[in-house]
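FORM 7B: Structural annotation worksheet

SECTION A. Query
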Amino acid sequence: MKQTYSILQRQVNLQTGKVAVRVCKKGTEEDLSKDVNYCKLRSIFNQDLTYYLVKQENEKEVIKILKKKVVEEDDRYIEIK
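SECTION B. Predicted structure
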């Protein structure tokens, strides 16, 4: 059975400091390979956006973590750089 992943988008409004997190796409590693490259480029050109790759089983708890103002490294997700 192949592992299912989610790509999460974290956006911080620089004027208000409000943090929004949403699920961009779900799929296997093979399905998401092109999307990961797109997310890398998008985050380079838009500093408000950060993308994370997370196992689907950890998705809800990671969303709670990413909604906090400060995000520290964690083994439940990988920042797409």
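SECTION C. Observations
The mean pLDDT is 93. The CA atoms of residues 27 and 56 lie 9 Å apart.

SECTION D. Sign-off
Analyst initials: ____
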